[in-house]
Design brief:
The chain is built from 14 helices and no strands. Among the domains are: about 80 residues, Serine Threonine Protein Phosphatase 5, Tetratricopeptide repeat, CATH 1.25.40; about 90 residues, no CATH class. The chain is mainly α and about 280 residues long.
Length: about 280
C-alpha cells in the first residue's frame, strides 16, 4: 500500500469508527425512548400496550406519564389508567395504591367514583373460594359499601350493590361450611352458633333456608323441640316451597311435632327472629 492510498483509507476508517460510536450511543431502551416523547405520545403508547394485552407494560408507561409530566392533564388521566392496568394485570395492591392516590389528589374528579370502585374490585376479585380465609371478603364489603354510600348516583353503584350481595353470600357460605362440619361430628352447640350467624346476619343470602333447616336438625339432636319447631316455623313462613322446608317438615312430623312455632320464650334469639319475621314486631 502506497502513501497515497493510505491517505484515503485512514479518513474512511476514522469516519466508520465515529459512525459506529454514534450508533451505539443512540441505542436507547424503551423507557429511555419515552423520555424523548411528550405526555400524549406516551399515554397513547400505553393504551396500545393495553390493547395488546400487555397490561404490565401499560402500567409502567402510564406511570412514566405521571413521573415525567406530573403537572399535566395527562398525568391525572394516566394515574387512573395505571390503577386500571395494574388491576388487569392482577397486581391488586398496586392498583389499590394508584386508585387511592387518585382519590387523594383528585377527590372531586368525575373518575373518583371509578377509583373507589377499583379499590373495591381489587378486594372483590380475590374472593374465589369459600374455603379460604374471608378477611379479604370483609375488606371488599367495606369498600363496596363506600361506593354505594358515597357515589349512589354513579354508574358503579348498581354493580357494587350486586357484588355486595354476592360477597355476603360468600361469608354466609363460610359459616355454613363450618356449621356442617360441626354438625356431622355431633358438635351441635358449635354448629348452632354458626347457623345462627347466617340467620341473624346474612338472612338475605341464599344460604338462609338451609341454615334454618340445619337448626331444626341440631335442636332436635339436642332434644330442644320448641326451638326446632320455631326454626321450622320461620323456615315454612319464608321458604315453604323449598326442599329444606320439606326436609324439616319430615323431621318434625316424625317426632309428632308441627311446623308451628314452639315456646318462643325458650331461645331468645329465635324468639326475636320469630317476632320480626312472623309478627312484624321489630321492637
Amino acid at each position: 500500500m502506497d502513501m497515497k492510498s493510505g491517505k484515503l483509507i485512514w479518513p474512511l476508517l476514522a469516519a466508520s469508527i465515529a459512525l459506529s460510536a454514534c450508533s451505539g450511543s443512540t441505542k436507547l431502551t424503551p423507557l429511555e425512548q419515552l423520555q424523548t416523547q411528550g405526555p400524549q405520545e406516551i399515554f397513547q403508547a400505553a393504551e396500545k400496550e393495553l390493547a395488546d394485552n400487555n397490561a404490565d407494560t401499560a402500567a409502567v408507561y402510564f406511570g412514566e406519564v405521571e413521573r415525567l409530566y406530573p403537572y399535566s392533564e395527562w398525568a391525572q388521566r394516566a394515574l387512573i389508567m395505571s390503577a386500571f392496568a395494574h388491576h388487569e394485570d392482577g397486581a391488586y395492591e398496586f392498583s389499590r395504591t394508584d386508585a387511592q392516590r387518585y382519590l387523594d389528589f383528585y377527590p372531586a374528579s368525575k373518575d373518583a367514583a371509578y377509583a373507589q370502585y377499583l379499590i373495591a374490585l381489587s378486594y372483590y376479585d380475590q374472593i374465589d373460594n369459600v374455603s379460604r380465609d374471608q378477611g379479604v371478603t370483609f375488606q371488599a364489603l367495606q369498600s363496596l359499601r363506600t361506593v354505594i354510600e358515597r357515589y349512589p348516583d354513579s354508574d358503579y353503584a348498581t354493580s357494587s350493590l350486586l357484588k355486595f350481595d354476592l360477597a355476603l353470600d360468600h361469608l354466609a357460605g363460610k359459616e355454613m361450611e363450618i356449621g356442617r362440619y360441626y354438625l356431622k361430628r355431633g358438635h351441635f352447640g358449635a354448629a348452632i352458633n354458626r347457623f345462627r350467624v347466617v340467620v341473624e346476619d346474612f338472612q338475605t343470602t341464599s344460604h338462609t333456608p338451609e341454615a334454618l333447616h340445619r337448626l331444626v336438625e341440631a335442636y332436635l339432636s339436642l332434644g330442644f323441640e320448641a326451638e326446632a319447631q320455631t326454626a321450622g316455623a320461620i323456615l315454612g313462613h319464608n321458604f315453604q316451597n323449598t326442599t329444606w322446608f320439606n326436609d324439616s317438615h319430615v323431621l318434625l312430623t316424625e317426632r309428632g311435632l308441627s311446623t308451628e312455632a314452639g315456646d318462643t320464650r325458650a331461645t331468645r334469639w329465635l324468639a326475636t327472629i320469630w317476632r320480626r319475621v312472623i309478627q312484624g314486631k321489630w321492637l
